[in-house]
Amino acid sequence: MSREKHGSFSLDLYQGRSRGAGYRLAYVPGGQSSLELQRFGSSGVRSIVAHNQTLNLEDNIRHRIEINRDTDGGMTVSVDGGRVLSATDRSFRDPFSGITIANDGGDYSIREITVFGDR
């Protein structure tokens, strides 16, 4: 749940102990690209796909955000059951090591995170 229309929030799925490579889902309220799926690593951050429409998560209602990635690199992001992002990226083939959550000035709350996958 987001309570304010400033700041940003991101969730990283990373590989390795340094947490320096993986995928990032970035949310910027009121931004031109309100939700963006990015790839990050030693060469920097690259946008894979962006939702270029307003996404209002500041309505004081809980929202369900789901990130899925299949074995062929197909990724989807859904908000409240509706698909908002879809892309394919095969940059990372190994399993992910963990999740990092970052808040840059907003007021966000997370009720639950569930991770499914193979190890």
Q: How are the SSEs ordered, and which strands pair?
A:
Blueprint: E1 9-15, E2 21-27, E3 35-41, E4 44-51, E5 65-69, E6 74-79, E7 82-88, E8 98-103
Antiparallel strand pairs: 1-2, 1-8, 2-3, 3-4, 5-6, 6-7
Which range best describes the helical content: under 10%, 10-25%, 25-40%, 40-55%, 55-70% or over 70%?
under 10%
Distance between the termini: 30 Å
Order of strands, widest sheet? 4-3-2-1-8
Number of helices: 0
User: Radius of gyration, rounded?
Assistant: 14 Å
Average the pLDDT over all residues and give the rounded result.
87
Low-confidence stretches: none
Main β-sheet: number of strands, strand sense, barrel status?
Answer: 5 strands, antiparallel
- The helix/strand series, from N terminus to C terminus, equals EEEEEEEE
**What structural class results from the helix and strand content?**
mainly beta
Morphology call: globular
How much of the sequence lies in strands comes to: 35-45%
Number of strands: 8
Description:
The protein has strands at 9-15, 21-27, 35-41, 44-51, 65-69, 74-79, 82-88, 98-103. The protein is mainly β. The chain has a domain at 9-60 and 95-103. The protein has a 5-stranded antiparallel beta sheet with strand order 4-3-2-1-8, with no helix packed on it. A hairpin with a 2-residue loop joins strand 3 and strand 4. The protein is globular and about 35 Å long. The protein starts with 8 loop residues before the first strand and ends in a 16-residue tail after the last strand.
